[in-house]
Automatic annotation (TrEMBL):
PROSITE patterns: ABC_TM2. The lineage of its organism: Bacteria, Bacillati, Actinomycetota, Actinomycetes, Streptosporangiales. Belongs to the ABC-2 integral membrane protein family. It comes from Actinoallomurus spadix. It is a multi-pass membrane protein. InterPro entries: ABC2_TM, ABC2_TM_bact-type, ABC_2_transport, Nod_factor_ABC_transporter. Residues 39-273 form the ABC transmembrane type-2 domain. It is found in: Cell membrane; Membrane. This is Transport permease protein.
Amino acid sequence: MTGHVPSLPRTPAARLRWALADGWTLTRRALTHWARQPAQVVVGLLFPIMIVLMFRYLFGGQMRVPGGGGYAEFLLPGMYAMTMAFGLETTFAAVSGDAAKGVTDRFRSLPMASSAVVTGRAAADLLHSALTLALMLACGLAVGWRWHDGTARALWAIALLLLLRFALLWAGIYLGLVAGDPQLLVAVQILVWPVGFLSNVFAAPSTMPGWLGAIAEWNPLSATVSATRELFGNPGWGGGSWAARHSLLLAVLWPVLITLVFFSLSVRRFRRLSR
């Protein structure tokens, strides 16, 4: 007996509905895994909160905020952005784990949209990141952080943080597909952590050597940090460079560019697996 193989949709609208339905199916798969393994999710949520508490109470007494103001209000926007950036590691681990177990190859053998695997993972990780950010915001409020320029601007800042995470999760998906081995997570951390700290989160780019400060100022993470500090009404480093004066623009352009590049690379890589 031969099974019935459904015909592929022919019109663009039908293909889009097909891709969205398949993507949502795989999103629900990831959410189901988290529901059955809550300990892993809880640990992932508690780690950034622990980092915030450490920096706030262990180092905060020695920190001097540029231009005055509370250290928590200076620190927290940077910590929010770093948490979104380091989420790339979670995405890499999930994608490379599926590839190593043969799950990804199994998906490729099914009559499903080729983009569904990557879009499903992206949607699931973005939902997880939104929950993580909500908990961090609550933690920030508990340790003295506040926004000062109205709810609308604060929501724009939150949107920029999620936009950064959305862009970088595509980088995580692509690297996971290329590596195909979750043990290579250490190599990704060696890449991600220096990029995270080579920014304006903890130190002003103006205090760094000229070439290093320029890299820090043009770091996509720095753009999001500067933009969110401005939108929240929190203190920042300032600066007279073009990147510092146009951080809001760069906080949108950088994630859009990263998304365009790594989304196309991810879908192409998925289609070429095991060829």
